[in-house]
Design brief:
Layout: H1 2-27, H2 35-38, E1 43-48, E2 51-56
Antiparallel strand pairs: 1-2
C-alpha cells in the first residue's frame, strides 16, 4: 500500500510541475506580428469604425461576407454598417 501511495504522490507531483511549466510558458511575453506582413496579394483590408476588417476578393458572383452574428454588414464593403457591433 505504501508503494502505491508513493507512486500516486510522484505522479501528482509531476503533473503539478508540468502544469506550472505550461503556465509559465503561456505567460512569457511574445512578439506580435502585424497581419499585413503575413498577408498575400489577394488579401484586402478596410477600416470600419476604427476596426480593421480583413477580406478576400476572389471568384465570381454575388459577394459573401462572414462576420459575427451581432454585426450587420452591407454587401458593399465601402458602405459597411458596423454601427450595431
Amino acid at each position: 500500500m505504501k508503494r502505491l501511495r508513493k507512486i500516486a504522490v510522484v505522479i501528482i507531483s509531476l503533473l503539478v510541475v508540468l502544469y506550472l511549466g505550461l503556465v509559465i510558458v503561456a505567460l512569457l511575453p511574445q512578439e506580435t506580428i502585424p497581419i499585413s506582413t503575413l498577408s498575400g496579394p489577394q488579401d484586402k483590408f478596410v477600416m470600419v469604425n476604427g476596426q480593421t476588417i480583413h477580406y478576400l476578393k476572389q471568384g465570381n458572383g454575388k459577394p459573401l461576407i462572414f462576420g459575427p452574428r451581432f454585426c450587420r454588414f452591407d454587401l458593399h464593403l465601402a458602405q459597411a454598417d458596423a454601427s450595431s457591433c
